[in-house]
Each structure stands twice: as structure tokens, then as C-alpha cells.
Specification:
Elements (H helix, E strand, L loop, with lengths): L12 H18 L3 E6 L6 H12 L5 E7 L3 H8 L5 E5 L8 H9 L8 E5 L16 E7 L6 H4 L1 H5 L3 E5 L11 H11 L4 E4 L8 H15 L1
Helix pairs in contact: 1-4
């Protein structure tokens, strides 16, 4: 027989985080910035998605990036090579970004000079689901190489997302994965969600993603 004991830690961590996230969003709104929280497992394509989006948007949008990871300098360097303002946020032992860390990151960015902010979260599908950052859009990218049951195994993160990207569809047959099943699972969890099938290698679906970014920013302005 298992016994349980209630331990009081003095405050609600998620409630405090939510308040900080609201403050972050207000700050972004004051500067006319649309922020995208890019979540997904390691190897799903988060960093490459942001890189290719920076390339595609070119000079039409002023872009900044926050790279969150246990050691963030590696992905941060990939964004910096495009000449955009970039902050790396080390999470140490934590498996997610939180609003407090992002608050510090915003202090170091030239917010008056940005239109769009990409926040790359730590690579997993569990911890980031609980922590708002102040973003305007939550985006989850998954790869067919993770298995076509990856969506139904992680309902929480998909239930709160605004967009799901099913990536690497060019290798779906090779890894015996059904990309359409992943799309169906996502829509079953969240009927209101937008879902894109994509291959960052071939470019399939990428234009629709860029349109989503542009449309989200235009609506926020």
C-alpha cells in the first residue's frame, strides 16, 4: 500500500509563471512583436525550421531569436550567423524554458527593432507544455522518425498548440510511419488546431508555414 503526503511549497509555481508570461506578452505587444514558441523533441527540426524561416523572410521582417537549451550556445550560434539579434538561455538541469528566463532574455534584445521573435524551447514534448512564456503562438513540430504514435502519446502539448507541423514526410515510408495518422491524431486531440505536413528537405509545406507566420504577425498588428 502506498502512502501520500501533501507538501506545501508556499506558492503555486504555474500561477506565478503565468503572471510573468502575461507581463512578457504585454511587453511584446507594446513593441509590436509577435512571438512564436517553437516546441518539439530533439531532432524534430526546430532549429532548421527557424533558420529556413529567417532565410525566407529575409529583410521583409525584423527577426530576433531566443535559443533555449541545457547548453544554448550551439543553436544560438546557428541563428547568429544570419545577423539577427539572438539570446541563448541555458536551462541547466531544467527541461523547459519558463517565463522568468524569457523575461531576462527580453531585457537583452533590441525590442524596438524587432517584428517577430522565435523562441526555440528545450527539446522534449513533456515539460514545455506546462509553462507559458508570453508567446502569441505555440507551435509543435514532430518528425515521422519519432514514430506515428508520437502525437497520441503526448496529448497535453498538442491540446494547447496553435499549429502542429509533421516534419520529414519525405522519409515516412522508409521509417514505416503514417503521416496522415499523425495529422488525424492531432485533430482528434485539438479539433481547432492547424496542422501542416512538411519536409524541410524538399520544401513541401514550408510555404504554408511562412504564410502562417506572416498572417499571425499581420493579425497581431
Amino acid at each position: 500500500m502506498h502512502t501520500t503526503e501533501e507538501v506545501s511549497i508556499g506558492y503555486d509555481v504555474l500561477a506565478v509563471n503565468a503572471k510573468l508570461a502575461q507581463n512578457n506578452r504585454k511587453k511584446l505587444d507594446r513593441h509590436g512583436i509577435t512571438a512564436f514558441n517553437i516546441m518539439g523533441a530533439i531532432g524534430s527540426g526546430k532549429t532548421l525550421l527557424i533558420e529556413k524561416t529567417i532565410e525566407s523572410l529575409g529583410k521583409s521582417q525584423r527577426i530576433g531569436a531566443i535559443a533555449g537549451d541545457v547548453i544554448a550556445r550551439i543553436d544560438a550560434a546557428r541563428f547568429e550567423k544570419y545577423g539577427i539579434p539572438t539570446i541563448g538561455l541555458n536551462t541547466g538541469k531544467e527541461c523547459h524554458l519558463d517565463a522568468h528566463l524569457v523575461e531576462h532574455g527580453l531585457l537583452e534584445l533590441p525590442l524596438d527593432s524587432l517584428d517577430i521573435l522565435f523562441i526555440e524551447n528545450v527539446g522534449n514534448l513533456i515539460c514545455p507544455a506546462d509553462f507559458e512564456l508570453g508567446e502569441h503562438k505555440k507551435v509543435v513540430i514532430v518528425s515521422v522518425s519519432e514514430g506515428d504514435d508520437i502525437v497520441e502519446k503526448h496529448p497535453l502539448i498538442f491540446s494547447t498548440a496553435d499549429l502542429i507541423i509533421v516534419n520529414k514526410i519525405d522519409i515516412a515510408e522508409a521509417v514505416n510511419a503514417d503521416a496522415d495518422k499523425m495529422v488525424s491524431d492531432a485533430r482528434l486531440i485539438n479539433p481547432r488546431i492547424d496542422v501542416l505536413k512538411m519536409s524541410l528537405k524538399t520544401g513541401e509545406g514550408f510555404g504554408e508555414w511562412v504564410d502562417f507566420v506572416k498572417r499571425s504577425h499581420e493579425r497581431a498588428c
